[in-house]
Amino acid sequence: MKALLLIDLQNDFLEGGSLAVPKGNEVIPIVNQIQSRFDLIVATQDWHPANHKSFASNHKGRMVFEKIDLNGLEQVLWPDHCIQGTVGAELSDQLDARPIEVIFRKGVDPDIDSYSGFYDNGHRRSTGMAGYLRDKGVTALYVAGLAADYCVYYSVLDAIAEGFDTYLIENATRAISDEGFQLAKKEIIKRSGTIVSVL
Ligand code: VGL
Ligand code: ZN
C-alpha cells in the first residue's frame, strides 16, 4: 500500500495567509495531479487555539521569528496562524480534497507545538496517524505539502522512525527558509529517507 500524506495545505500557509510560505501555492496543482497514483491519501491540519504558545502574540515583549525556550523545548515564535475555526485554518479551496480519507489535526495543546503530523514536538502525544496508516496496510509513504523545513520535515523524520518507506516529494513542497530545507534534505537522506520528484 502506497499512501500520500499532505501536510498543512491551509490558507494561512498560502499566498495572502498570515504565515505564507514563499511559492507555496505552486504545490497545489502538482498535488491535485498526482493524487490518483496513490492507494490512500491522508492530510494534516495545523489547528491551534488562539492562546497557543507558539504565537509571538502570546508572549509579551517577544517578536515574531524569535526563538524561546518553551517548557524545555526550543520554540520559534510564529505569527498567529491556523486558529481553529478560522478561514486561515481551512484547507485551500484550490486543493482537490475529495480523495482525502482522513485529516489529522495537530497543535491543539496550547503548551506545546506540533510540527510533525505524527507526534507533538516533545514526542509525548501521538495523533494516531501511524497506527491508522499501519492498520490500512501502508508500507510506503510519500510526503508533500508545507512547510518543507518544518512540518513536512518533522513528519518525514517521524515516518522514517515509524518504519515506513518514506519519500519526500521535493517538487510538491516549499520551504520557509531554503538553508533550512537543504539541511533537512541532508538529514532525511542520512536517516534513509528518499527525495523524489514526480511528473
Ligand atoms: C508550520 C510553523 C508553524 C508548518 C506550522 O506547517 O510547517 N510551521 N506551524
Ligand atoms: Zn503552527
TrEMBL record:
Q: In which pathway does it act?
A: Cofactor biosynthesis; nicotinate biosynthesis; nicotinate from nicotinamide: step 1/1
Q: Which GO terms describe its molecular function?
A: metal ion binding; nicotinamidase activity
Q: What is its EC number?
A: 3.5.1.19
Sorted keywords for this record are: Hydrolase, Metal-binding, Pyridine nucleotide biosynthesis
List the SUPFAM superfamilies hit by this protein, alphabetically. Isochorismatase-like hydrolases (SSF52499)
Class of the enzyme per the UniProt entry, highest EC level: hydrolase
Q: Which residues cross the membrane?
A: none
List, alphabetically, the Pfam families matched.
Isochorismatase
Q: Give the family from UniProt.
A: Belongs to the isochorismatase family.
Q: What name does this protein carry?
A: Nicotinamidase
Give me the gene this protein comes from.
pncA
